[in-house]
Amino acid sequence: MSSERHVGTHRHHTSVSYPMSLHQRIYTLVIVPILGLFLTFILIHAFGSHAESTEISRLSIVGALAATFGRLLVAYVFALLFSLPLALLVTRNAFAERVFLPLFDVIQSLPMLAFFPVVIVFFVHFGMYNGAAIFILFTAMLWNIVFSLVSGLHSIPAEIKAAGHIFGLHGLAFARKILVPASVPYLITGSILAFAQGWNIVIVAEVLHTYLPGSTTAIDLYGIGSVLVHASADGQQQTFLAAILALVVVIALCNFFIWQKLLHHAEKYKFE
C-alpha cells in the first residue's frame, strides 16, 4: 500500500447531520436561495424605496455589500497565507512553542484599535485607502486562524507522524501529505471565526475619517460598514435598517452555502 494511502487517508465521520433526501436537497439548493434573494430584494425595496434623495439607493446597498465582501476576501487570503507558516513555526518543537505561543497570545490580546490611527496615517499618506481597511481586517482575522491551526496540528496522533517519517515524508512533502490535511477541520473552524470577526470590525474598518483628526468623510471607503455608520449618523433610519437586514441575509446565506458545506466536507479529514 502506498504511503499516501497509509498516511493521507482519514476515516469519515457521520456525526454531522446533512440533508440527504430528495426533498431536503431541493429545499437546500433551490428554495432557500430563492427565498433569501427574494427576502433581500423585498427588504431593500421596502426600506429603500421611500428614502430621501440624499440617502443611498437600493442598488448601492448591493454594491456596498459586494465591495465589503471583496475586502474581506482579500484580507482572508492574506490571513490564510500568514497563518499556516506561523502555526507551523509554533508547533515545530517544544522550545518554539514555549517562545512563540505566549508571544502570539500577547499580540492577539493587544487592543489593536489603539494602533490603527498610526496604521491609517501610513496608508493614507500613500493614498492606499483600501489597503488600510484590508490591513485592519487582516489583523482581526489572522489570530483566529493561527490558534485554530495550532490546535489542529497538535491533534495529529503521534503514530500518524511516525508513519509518515517511515514512508520517507519530510519537509514540504510531510506538510502536504499529513499536516495540511489533518488541519483542514480546524482551518475551516478558524476561518468561520475569522470571517465573523471581519464582519464585526468592517463597520470601523471602512470609516477611515474617525482615525484622523480634522479629516472628512471623503476618505471613507464605499462599503456596507460605511453605509451603516453614515446612515446612523445622519438619521437615515430606513437606509440603516435596509442595509443591516441585507447584511444579515448575506451572512446567513454565506454560512449556509459555504461554511456548512465546508464543515461537512471536513469530516472526512478527522481522526477517530
Question: How is the secondary structure organized here?
Answer:
Blueprint: H1 3-8, H2 22-48, H3 58-90, H4 94-109, H5 116-125, H6 129-154, H7 158-166, H8 171-205, H9 224-233, H10 237-266
Helix pairs in contact: 2-10, 3-6, 3-8, 3-10, 5-6, 6-8, 8-9, 8-10, 9-10
Classified in CATH, the superfamily is: MetI-like
Question: What is the 3D form?
Answer: globular
Number of discrete domains: 1
CATH architecture name: Orthogonal Bundle
Highest CATH level, the class: Mainly Alpha
Order of helices and strands: HHHHHHHHHH
Main beta-sheet strand count, sense and barrel state: none
> Averaging pLDDT over every residue, what do you get?
77
Detail the poorly predicted runs. 1-29, 43-55
Briefly note the structural class of the backbone. mainly alpha
The percentage helix is: over 70%
Query: Count the strands?
Result: 0
**Share in β-strands:** under 5%
Using the CA coordinates, give the radius of gyration. Answer: 22 Å
CATH topology group: MetI-like fold
Distance between the termini: 21 Å
- Number of continuous helical runs: 10
What would your notes on this structure say?
This protein is an all-alpha fold and 272 residues long. It has one domain (60-269): MetI-like (MetI-like fold, Orthogonal Bundle), CATH 1.10.3720. The protein is 74% helix and 0% strand. The chain has ten helices and no strands. The protein has helices at residues 3-8, 22-48, 58-90, 94-109, 116-125, 129-154, 158-166, 171-205, 224-233, 237-266. Helix 2 (22-48) runs antiparallel to helix 10 (237-266) and helix 3 runs parallel beside helix 10. The longest helix is centred in the last third of the chain and has 35 residues, at 171-205. Mean pLDDT is 77; it is low at 1-29 and 43-55.
